Amino acid sequence: MRRRVCVVLVTHNSGAVVSGLVRSLPAAMGTLEWELVVVDNASEDASLAEVLRVNPSTRVVKAGRNLGYAPAINLALGTGFDADAVLIVNPDVRLWPGSVPHLLGALDSPGVGMAVPRTTDGEGRLVWSMRREPTVLRALGEAVLGGEVAGRWGRLGELVTNRSWYEQVMRPDWASGAVVMASTECLESTGLWDESFWMYSEETDFMLRARDRGFGIAFVPEARATHLGGNSGTEPQLWATLSVNRVRLFSKRHGRAESFIFWLVVAFGELLRARRPRSRAALRALLRNFGVTVLGDDWEQKGVPAMSSARSIKSG
Fold this sequence. Notes:
316 residues; Spore Coat Polysaccharide Biosynthesis Protein SpsA, Chain A
């Protein structure tokens, strides 16, 4: 039986980069059957025109407004399709030839529900895409030493920066969501992506919830992708959103006392770097959102509903 993959792509003013991704899909799929579902978050450019120009058979879902990333993914998952797995990918990614069968094959391993490729940036440099579960000690290590240095030691850093680990199959706690494949069984069991994050940490939340249910993630070095990259590392508002959602994610999985300490450590790290505009923006956001992120306003014990039958994905 031939296996089938559904590719889910969320666009928002992605016209300058999205055609490169769509052009890379046929070679990346090899002999697999596949379809492309695009959810467009009210793009004001030629995003959809570019997608349809390259792949006229694309199934398009118009969100009508900028829903955010997680809601758009949920919208795509609710459209109904037959697939063995779903590949969720950013528009600024280029998949290498033959990569997707490697990801799909990794899902056959016991305890694996998700798979991610080895990723390089537009300059060909390795992207540190694997992550460890957030802890207070790891947040402190990154605050004091910086993420890349702290990541050399498992207890001190969330970011995995051991280069040799990117040359072998690994089982990280979670990974960058630029390219992630999930089995339909994993999606059905884990449920919807948490839409309250809107952007950043939604993939972390989903991957950790999947792991809680026995669906681990495999890093597959034979699968390759190029991620041209976003600007969250330099753009102050995006960095602020990332920092706040980092604390929100931790608070969702831990009690108030530990969440307060985590918030304090993250804020301390930004204070140490307050000469940077992005750190000043993050510090202001962390202070402004203290009640939501730490005290649990609208967050404490907040669960994510399981997929209803209307959003279920049939396995082909």
